[in-house]
Every structure is written in C-alpha cells, then in structure tokens.
Write a structure and sequence with these properties.
single chain, alpha/beta, Spore Coat Polysaccharide Biosynthesis Protein SpsA, Chain A, eight-stranded mixed beta sheet, two-stranded antiparallel ribbon, 7 helices, 12 strands, globular, disordered N terminus, disordered C terminus
C-alpha cells in the first residue's frame, strides 16, 4: 500500500449523483454502478483510493441509488442518501466527518489514474486553499458577440476534473450561497465547489489531469471507458459511425 503524502487528515468524499442515462444498464440507478471488466466503476475508484492509503470514503448518492450502493459496497462504508444537488450532497458529507481536508471525487470519473490523485494530494501547500486536476481544452470555442462569432484563445482555458482537494473551511465557505455572487456562478447555474471557492477568493492550484479522467455518464462515454480499458476497439474512424444514433 502506498502512503498518501497529503498534509494532515484527508477524507475522501465520493459523489454518485449522476442520474441513469441511455446506454447504461437498466439496473444501474447511477452510472457508477455500471460494470466494466468485472468491476463496477465505483468499486474501481474505491480500490484506487484505498491503494493510496486514504481512510474510508464517505459516499453520497441520490436516494434512488443509495440502497443499491449500500447492498453492493463494503458494509463498513458510510453511504448517505440525498435528495438535491451537489451543494446539498457536500453539506451532508461535511455533517458526518470532521476532517480538515476533503478530497471530493465524482464516482463517474472512476478511471482517473492513481498518479493524478497522488499528485493532487501532494500539491496542497501552505499557500493554497484547494487543488484540482485540469486538462487543456481542445474543443473549438467561440465567443458569441452581437456582430457574430469570435475565436477564443484556448491556451488560457482548461477543463476541471476530479478529485478536488479543499481545506474544510474553504469548502464550507464555498457551500454558503452568500459567498458566491450570482454573477459568478458557473455556466448553466450548476453548483461547482471550485467555481464557488474561486468566487469567494480562494487560492486554487492545479495539476495535470488525464484523458482517462472523463466522466462516464452515457452510452458514448461508456464506450470510451471500454476502449480505455482495452475492452472495446475504437471504430470512430469508420465512415458514417458518427451519424448513427
């Protein structure tokens, strides 16, 4: 077992909040219950966290999935059921643990390499309030202006991944709606603890993420996960494949 090099006590918070989606097994109330290569996604993630020497995670799931998770996972794991959004899920997790550092990991990003998680854990120093892995944005991005479209310099843009390591007081402040002005909310209005922490003035560091750290949410990303694990072939080069439903 590899010992974590994170400063202080770290409690992993695993969020299994994604709803079922087309292409995901009918008995999977949340995508992280999908089985790949003999292991469910969330089991792969829990094994990775355990290999890093971290304490038992707190798992927070939608009410519809919590019962199934409790039945499948180690009975010693605490699985919380929540009705609500990410903000409510994180608040529920904070109520049952008192650790000074929280490692927030989306269960759907179960293929995140152990090396990325270790780098996040090792990168929180005295000058930072949080650390998050990022990947360069490769998609074409345009700014919509009254006069038309304008190219955006992608060299300054990055996509956020999991896990996110935050100091407890920083996460608590980020969860306070009064600390996050509406004009600084992330696109789409969905709560994101890193966006909220930045809006509250937190100092957030970054480490290099991984293309394996994508979220498995639907049929397409499930297929990508199968390719990543060598369980399927990449046939996207075939003519007409992109047009199929």
């Amino acid at each position: 077992m590899t010992s974590s090099s994170a400063p202080g006590r770290v409690r992993p918070l695993v969020l299994a909040l994604a709803p079922p989606a087309p292409g995901i097994s009918h008995d999977a109330e949340t995508p992280s219950l999908e089985t790949l290569g003999g292991s469910r996604l969330i089991e792969r993630l829990l094994n990775t966290l355990h290999a890093l020497g971290l304490p038992a995670p707190v798992v927070v799931a939608r009410s519809e999935a919590a019962g199934h998770l409790r039945a499948l996972l180690d009975p010693r794991l605490r699985v919380l059921a929540v009705d609500g959004d990410r903000r409510r899920a994180l608040r529920a997790a904070l109520e049952v643990c008192d650790d000074p550092l929280l490692l927030v990991h989306d269960a759907e990003r179960a293929l995140t390499p152990q090396t990325v998680i270790a780098e996040v854990l090792a990168s929180l120093h005295g000058g930072l309030d949080a650390v998050v892995p990022v990947v360069a944005m490769t998609d074409s991005v345009k700014e919509v202006l009254p006069g038309g479209l304008r190219n955006v310099d992608r060299s300054t843009l990055a996509g956020l991944q999991s896990p996110r390591l935050l100091r407890r007081e920083v996460l608590e402040a980020a969860l306070d709606p009064a600390q996050t002005p509406a004009e600084q909310a992330p696109p789409g209005g969905r709560f994101d603890e890193i966006h909220a922490a930045l809006a509250a003035g937190a100092r957030v560091g970054t480490v290099q993420g991984s293309h394996s750290g994508f979220a498995v949410l639907d049929r397409l990303t499930l297929w990508q996960a199968q390719i990543s694990l060598g369980l399927a072939r990449d046939t996207s080069h075939r003519r007409g494949l992109a047009r199929r439903g």
